[in-house]
Design a protein that fits this description.
3-stranded antiparallel sheet, 6 helices, alpha+beta
Length: 154
């Protein structure tokens, strides 16, 4: 993606498992990374990535991949890719513009909602916490809500 959150040709093809199918497909992976810093030290990290695809398109994007230089353009970096994802639903594109204007005004409320969702997630059995579908549902619940609205779009 460009620094303004606009999709650009990457030239890479990756095969990822479905987390959820719908008008917006969600793909996800858990990964472990190990390596050397070149200074004799090694590192080990675990992570996960989610990719979203409009079912009418032949590409999926990782919308959480925000680099340091992109932080200056945070609003457009977050909103523009979703506008592209929802481009075939004008009501959702308009909602993304409204959301952009409200995004940084809901900080306190959003933090509490996030804490509540994390508490719900921690109450799930361990095997349910390991499933990508549940990780996405509880960690990226705001995105899930947008996808539900998009599913209802005519």
């Amino acid at each position: 993606m460009s620094g303004k959150g606009e999709p650009k040709e990457g030239g890479r093809m990756v095969f990822l498992p479905y987390v959820k199918k719908g008008k917006i497909n969600i793909y996800g992976i858990k990964y472990t990374e190990t390596g050397s810093t070149g200074q004799g030290a090694s590192y080990f990290s675990k992570g996960l990535r989610f990719y979203y695809q409009n079912a009418n398109e032949d590409y999926a994007l990782n919308y959480q991949n925000i680099g340091l230089t992109d932080l200056m353009n945070m609003e457009s970096r977050i909103v523009n890719p979703f506008k592209d994802l929802f481009k075939d639903c004008p009501a959702m594109v308009n909602e993304m513009e409204t959301m952009k204007n409200q995004m940084f005004q809901r900080n306190k409320e959003a933090k509490q909602e996030y804490k509540d969702k994390q508490k719900e997630f921690k109450n799930l059995p361990k095997e349910e916490q390991e499933k990508l579908i549940n990780i996405h549902k509880y960690t990226f619940y705001a995105i899930e809500r947008m996808f539900d609205k998009y599913e209802a779009c005519q």
